[in-house]
Write a structure and sequence with these properties.
This protein starts with 19 loop residues before the first helix and ends in a 47-residue tail after the last helix. The longest helix is centred in the middle third of the chain and has 31 residues. It is 58% helix and 0% strand. It is mostly helical. The radius of gyration is 19 Å and the shape is elongated. The chain has a single domain, classed as CHAD domain (Alpha solenoid).
């Protein structure tokens, strides 16, 4: 049975005698897979930790890719590396507003009655901003699949980097069942990364 880390994710079993490239290929594949596995919860918006989990997984992916740039052909590695970085940035706006809303709600709970209407208005405004950011976040995440990023990652690093078959494909502006954007999620603006391609050409 594969070992799992403290988050419950399977750890890659590496052979101390294997070469650096094959070791990092296996590690990067696992970390791409962890990103895709976290996406559905972020898109659903029911769990405040969903977007946070994608951001954590993407940071771990970036860390592995940052130290492997010399091990793989730049022609296809650099676009995937840029995309890994873009994922983290694209989930910031929702996360920031979720954290702010949580703080405001905690403040409201202990605030004098006279101050609560003002806090309520602020919470409502931040919630609208968060919902708008969620639409952009979902579109960004859907765009990754539309551009073939999961397939490219799997082709370059192995099957572990593929998107799980059970992961739902989110369409641009997808809204969870019930017609309302989920309250719990932490994401970001896809505009800054919309032009990052993945590149499918290049030698292995």
């Amino acid at each position: 049975m594969a070992k799992k880390d403290k988050r419950g994710a399977a750890e890659v079993a590496l052979d101390p005698n294997q070469d650096y490239r094959s070791a990092m290929q296996a590690l990067i594949a696992e970390r791409w897979g962890a990103v895709w596995a976290a996406v559905p919860v972020a898109v659903a918006g029911e769990d405040p930790e969903g977007v946070h989990d994608v951001r954590v997984a993407s940071r771990r992916l970036r860390a592995a890719m940052d130290v492997s740039t010399e091990a793989f052909p730049a022609v296809w590695y650099r676009p995937l590396h840029r995309t890994a970085k873009a994922i983290t940035g694209a989930l910031g706006e929702v996360r920031d507003r979720d954290v702010l809303i949580e703080a405001l709600e905690a403040e409201r709970a202990t605030a004098p009655t006279v101050e609560r209407p003002g806090i309520d208005r602020l919470i409502a405004r931040v919630s609208r901003e968060r919902d708008a950011a969620r639409v952009e976040m979902v579109a960004f995440l859907a765009g990754l699949e539309a551009r073939g990023v999961p397939a490219e990652a799997a082709r370059r690093f192995g099957p572990a980097a593929a998107m799980p078959a059970a992961a739902p494909a989110a369409g641009p502006g997808t809204v969870p069942e019930g017609g309302k954007l989920g309250k719990g999620s932490k994401a970001s603006n896809g505009r800054a990364v919309a032009d990052h391609g993945t590149g499918t050409g290049g030698a292995r």
